[in-house]
Amino acid sequence: MKALVSLNSGSSSIKFALYTLGAARQPQLAARGKVEGIGIAPRLTARTAEGEVILDRAWPGEEGLTHAQLLEHLFDWSAGHLDQHEVIAIGHRIVHGGTEFAGPCLIDEAVLAKLEALCPLAPLHQPHNLAGVRAVARLRPGLPQVACFDTAFHHGMPALATRFALPRALHDRGIRRYGFHGLSYEYIARRLNEIDPQLAAGRVIAAHLGNGASLCAMRNGTSVDTTMGFTALDGLMMGTRCGSLDPGVVLHLQTQLGMSAADVERLLYTQSGLLGVSGISSDMRALSESGAPEAEEAIELFASRVAREAGALAVSLGGLDGLIFTAGIGENHADIRSRICRRLAWLGLDIDETANAGHRTCISLPDSRAMVCIVPTDEERMIALHTLAILARVPA
Ligand code: ADP
């Protein structure tokens, strides 16, 4: 029996999912989990598909354990857990595929070199993604590895949606809008096609609202516009990221307040968003439970920014047939969904508060002009499906 692994290697965590392949070669989730606290207090946890905890291991006092060493622990454990299953490939989430990579591909030395060259475009994510690839190559030489890009789903966006109003020469040097969260949106597009093919063929905005947050305007299941641009900093307000910001603020911080580029980077990526505005937490649940006026203001700003950007994407689509909520906040937080939908009532969204409170799949009233749905995302599964498709193309 064969198995696949999906890996998402970040700076301080590695998320993974193990899939077995049955006779129909459909990935069956065997376990999912994460290594957290890398560099501080590493801990490896895993659950079955049903949510039962099957692994919880910590390494107190061993904060020096590297990504590669922790991956080795993960592989050792998975070999035991997968029993008779042979891992035949690893799929990686790679944040940036630049202008060249329009879809997933097998990773070889030439591909790795091209992906390394894209590190300056995603300095906080890409190096860690690639460190995972290199670690697997050392631990399991010869095992096929597949790159699955967060940018690829947006590759076919109309040329206008890729442009900043900057001189053409800069666009030609790659200073353009790419878009991210593509694996999530691709999964949502597929699921929506199974749930409601008519809606999937229409004008849909998908709202991926997690710690990172963005919107994607889809027509007939393809991306036509999105809120993240050159980096994953643009667009919506997020857990700790600021989202769209007058670029004059960045200049002022540096020229008038004397902040270095590194200070500004830290501010915009890790000290802003819900955390910065509330001064309390980056976690939406904690803010909802807080009751402090600063927490309420952060929540209101989040909802109003989502609605404002959704209005802009409705312009890109020329109208709206459906709004899809996904990711941690989008799937679980009824009050945020309600606040967003109330602001978008003028677009024909009429939310059913009972269905919303019950987290049902369809949460709009039957006569609502545009539908509102909750569709849980699964980026790891999308990676597994891509990895299988690439393997099928590789000669044995
Ligand atoms: P990531 O981008 O790290 O994958 P998630 O998609 O897990 O993030 O989303 C994390 C956010 O979702 C946090 O703000 C968290 O408070 C929120 N969230 C997660 N579960 C719930 C829940 N049951 N109710 C309300 N908010 C939730």
Q: Using DSSP, what is the number of strands?
A: 13
Number of helices: 15
The rough form would be described as: globular
Biggest pleated sheet: 8 strands, mixed
**Unreliable spans:** none
| Rg, nearest Å | 21 Å
Q: Report, as a whole number of angstroms, the end-to-end distance.
A: 17 Å
The set of bound ligands, ions and cofactors reads: adenosine-5'-diphosphate
Q: Give the oligomer, counting copies of the same chain as homo and different chains as hetero.
A: single chain
Strand line-up in the sheet with most strands:
5-4-3-2-1-6-8-7
Shape-level CATH architecture of the largest domain: 2-Layer Sandwich
Sketch the topology as an H/E string, one letter per element.
EEEEEHEEHHEHHHEEEHHHHHEHHHEH
- Range of helix content: 25-40%
User: What portion of residues belong to β-strands?
Assistant: 15-25%
Assign the CATH class of the largest domain: Alpha Beta
Mean pLDDT: 95
What is the CATH T-level topology of the largest domain?
A: Nucleotidyltransferase, domain 5
User: What's the number of structural domains?
Assistant: 2
CATH-level-4 superfamily name of the largest domain? ATPase, nucleotide binding domain
